[in-house]
Each structure stands twice: as C-alpha cells, then as structure tokens.
Sequence to fold (319 residues):
Amino acid sequence: MSKYGSADDLTIKEVETPNLKDNEVLVKVKATSVNDWDWSLLTGKPFIIRLLIGLFKPKKVTIPGVDIAGEVVNMGSRVTHFNLGDRVYGDLSEDNFGGFAEFVAVPETSLTPIPNNMSYEQAAAMPHVSMLAAQGLRDVGGVQPGQEVLINGAGGGVGTIGVQIAKAIGVKAITGVDSEDKFPVMASIGFDHMLDYQTQSFIQQGKEYDLILDNKMSCSVFSAIRALKPNGKYVVVGGSLSCMLILICASFFIRFFCRKHVHILKLIPNKNMRLVGDLFDAEKLKPVIDGPYPFDDAIKAIEHFGKAKHVGKVVITLD
Fold:
C-alpha cells in the first residue's frame, strides 16, 4: 500500500521476511480478515487516519491487516509463552498491522492460543470484532441478564459476534438493525427482532432499550438516546468523527439532565481473548464468515467489504 485511494491501488508483491525483536514471535499467517481499520488505511478516511500514519501517503503502515491466525515458526530470545508450531491468533491494530502477508512479526503479548476445535478461518474472524463486542457489551455497557439490547449495524462482524455474547450472558431480547437482505443470517444466530435501516428507524419505533451498541452512529446522539430506558447506556463502537465529537461534548449534559449514559468505546486489543475461546468451546459462539477468499482474490474481498454488503466477517486465506 503506497498511496491512499481504492482497492485498485493495492498491489501484491514480494517483500522480505520481517526481522524479529527479542519479545516477538514470527507467525506464518494462515488466514486474515478485513476490518474498518483496513478500509480506512486504504482510503485515508476519516482524515484523522492521515494524521496517524501519513498526511499525503501511508508511511507508518504499508501492509494492512488487523486480524491474523497462523502458526509460530520462529521466536525472539525473550519469548516464553509459545513454542514452535503453536497455533495463535490476535489483533495487530496496536502493532503496526501487517496481517495481509505470508509472515508477520508480533509481540507475544498480542497473541493467544487458538482453541483446538477452531479453524484458522474462524480464528481470523474473531480477534478485533469479538473484543469490540465483548468490551462494548460487558465492560462499558455492563449488560445484565434479562435486559433488552439493540445493536445498530447488526449484520457485520461486531453485530454477529455481539448477539451471541449477549445471548450467552442471558439478555432477554436483542433487536438488530441492518439491511433486510441480512435478516436470514441474523435470525439464525439469535436476533429476536430485526429492523431494516432503509425503511425503519429504531428511534421512531417507540421502543426503549437498556443498552444500545452502535457500530455506525448514523444519527444524532440526542435522537438515539430517545430509544433508551432511564439509566440506559448508549455505547458507540464506530461512526463519523463529527458525530463522535458531538457525543463527547454532550455526554455530561445528557447524564445530568436525561439520566442516561453515553460512551465511546476505547478498545483494548486482545483483552479477554480466552473468554472468546471458552464461549467457542462451549458452542455458544461461532463467527459468521463471508468467504473465505483465497489470497489471490484479496483485492476483490476488500472491495466487497467496502460496499458494506458482507454478512459477518470477510475472511482471506493464505494457506
């Protein structure tokens, strides 16, 4: 990735195998997946991305790819938690990315063993979105058994994982908002009610929720909180920068005058990944995979993600 633009500006080429630091593990990548981070790195939007990695062209990140699943093939001298041949997965969003490659060097603290019964494709679909969902629902949202939850942007990676985590907690009812063509899959993984955002506004339904997990933030925070119960929580995972700035400025007044709570999730990558593995082993969590696409079709997979027509996670295999 040498410039901002579209998927057509991506190229696949040979590069040198990364050199290892003492605390790093060299992973042979078997599968990866596409995230909003990757799309933002490619397009240079929102503008804050350019401030982070390069104003006119990407400098700090040249190989995108947040999620990886693969095999340990080499280790630095200070690595103590893994052995050669171990199957591992993790989120590289704080480690300069690099997952869209055959090999990547990763700090051992960013990796977790893959559960025995989980495939590489399933593992690649999990790290980033499962932590967004788990931390948004549990750590920030404090969701409890018997509560009612709405997930906006429910058919993507966070939504399809989030509904299963919420069901495992014992949530009473979960409403999902997305396009109607995603409803069959959404119903199959546990959504009790579904709304087509193109024809139905969850704000105008007259229904109130204990927690709203918003992956898109496509409306004003002042409108969204109308769909919250007293002391309810509105947790934003993704959305436009302008909407988030308004939310930050308004949060105190909303809490003081409306007795409702609004939060922007600050993700802690790879926190509680073992929770995800435990839920998978207990057959309470299974990622929804769009694909998998072979690596030769990686550009096509990224284009597909950019059109927002995918259901669950767009997965790319390298093995």
Q: What stands out?
A: The chain has a mean pLDDT of 90. The longest helix spans residues 241-258.
